[in-house]
Amino acid sequence: MINKKVANVTEALQGVKDNMTFMFGGFGLSGIPENAIAQLVKLNVKGLTCISNNAGVDDFGLGLLLQQKQIKKMISSYVGENDEFERQMLSGELEVELIPQGTLAERARAAQAGFPAFYTPAGYGTEVAEGKETREFNGKMYVLEHAFKADFGFIKAWKGDAAGNLIFKGTARNFNPNMCGAANITVAEVEELVPVGELDPNQIHIPGIFVQRIFQGPHYEKRIEQRTVRQRN
Amino acid sequence: MLDKNGIAKRIAKEVKDGYYVNLGIGIPTLVANFVRDDIEVEFQSENGVLGMGPFPFEGEEDADIINAGKQTITTLPGASFFDSAMSFSMIRGQHVDLTILGAMEVAENGDIANWKIPGKMVKGMGGAMDLVASAENIIVAMMHTNRAGASKLLKSCSLPLTGVGCVKKIVTNLAVIEVTPKGFKLLERAPGVTVDDIKNATEGHLIVEGEIPEMST
C-alpha cells in the first residue's frame, strides 16, 4: 500500500502559491472541499485561476476567496446566487470564462484520462465556440475543446483510506471524481478516513492512484442552498 | 390564458411511458407534478441523479442529495447517482428522451437564448448548451411575452445564443407551437385566447392553418 495520508489540511496544501490554477469539486455547495477552501483563505494566496462549476455564495464556498479578492479568473458554468461575484465581474476586477457544464466535466475528465482535446456539439454556433476549431462529423457540427491544466485539484469525498481510495455520497459526487488525477497534485479530503482494507474494492469510485494526498476534515458544515421540503399529511 | 402550472400541466402530456426526462429550472420543474400516475418515467438531474423523487419531508433534508436547482430532493426506488462526466454522457449521447427547459427568446428557426443579457445579467449556461446541442426532443416552457410585454418568439434572437436550430416545440401561457422549417406553426390555443391574441404576441412568422383547437390539459 502506498501511503497518501497527510496529518492535516496544512500539510495537504503545502506547495500552494500565488498565481496558481486550482480545480475544485462540488455542485453549488454540495460536495465542496470545505477544509481546503478555508486553508486557502488562511494562506491568502492571490492571483488564482479557479476551475469550479459554481463560485459559491457570498459567505461560503469559493465566495470566501472572492471576498478577499484572491481570485483573478474563474472558469465556471453557472455563477448566479453570488452578489460579490457579479459585482467583481461587471466591474472587470474578475476575469470570467463561462463554459457549458458538460464541457467543464469533460475537460477535467480529458486531463485525467490523458486526452489533449475532444469534440463536443455543446456551444456550436454560440459565442462559446468563437475562435475555436470546429469540424463536421456525420452531418453535425462540433467544437474542439481542450483538457484542463491545473496545479492542484481539491476534492471532497465521503469515505477514503490511506491508499487514497475514495467513495462519494449522493449528488455530492458531481465533478469530484472527474477532477481526481486531472491536476498535478490531487488533494482529497474525506468525512471519514477508514483503515486500509475496510473499503470493499468493488465499491470504490476512485482508485488511490489518482490521489496524491488525503486527510480527514475535522468538520463539515454542508450548508444547504435551497431547502425545499413537503409537508406531512 | 395559462399560468405557470397550466403550462407545466400541458407539457406533462408530452411525457410518454418509458421516457428519461431532464427538467430545467423554473416552469419545467413543475412538470413532474402533473405526469400521469399510470406511466413509468425517470427524471434526470444533470448534477448526477436519475430517478428523482419529490422534496423530502421536513427534517429529512440531506445536503448531499440535491437537484440541478440546488434544491433538496429525494430519490425513488431504482434511482442512481453518478459523476458529472457520466451525467453529460447521458445527455450528449442522446440517452435522455426529452428535455424541457425555459428560455428568454426563441427564434422561428429554432435558435434559443437563455443564459446571458450582456452588461446586465450573466448567470451562465449551466448544462443548457450541452442539453440543446444534443437532445433530439426539446420543448421550451416559457411565457409568450417578457415583463415589458415584448414577444419572446422572434424572427431571430437578439440575445447571445444557447444553441442553434434546436427547439422543436414551445408551450407558452397562450399557445402550443411547433417549430418548423417555415416558422412557428400554431397547434393549439390556451383557453380563452384567440388566434389574433397569439398573432399579436408573436414577432416571428406564425403559420396558422385551418381551425386551431383550444388545448385540453
Overview of the structural elements:
The complex is a heterodimer of chains A (233) and B (217). Chain A is an alpha/beta fold and 233 residues long. Chain A is 19% helix and 25% strand. Chain A is built from 6 helices and 11 strands. Chain A has helices spanning 9-12, 34-43, 63-67, 83-90, 101-113, 176-179; strands at 21-24, 48-51, 71-76, 95-98, 117-120, 134-137, 140-146, 152-161, 166-167, 185-194, 213-216. In chain A, strands 1, 2, 3, 4, 8, 9, 10 and 11 form an 8-stranded mixed β-sheet that branches. In chain A, strands 5-7-6 form a 3-stranded antiparallel β-sheet. The longest helix of chain A has 13 residues, at 101-113. Chain A is globular. The model of chain A has no long low-confidence stretch (mean pLDDT 97). Chain B is of the alpha/beta class. Helices cover 16% and strands 26% of the residues of chain B. Chain B is built from 5 helices and 15 strands. Chain B has helices at residues 4-12, 27-30, 84-92, 128-134, 195-200, and strands spanning 20-23, 42-45, 49-52, 75-81, 98-101, 105-107, 112-113, 116-117, 121-122, 138-141, 153-154, 169-171, 175-180, 183-189, 206-207. In chain B, the strands form 3 sheets. Chain B has a 10-stranded mixed β-sheet with strand order 4-3-2-1-5-10-12-13-14-15. Chain B is globular and about 50 Å long.
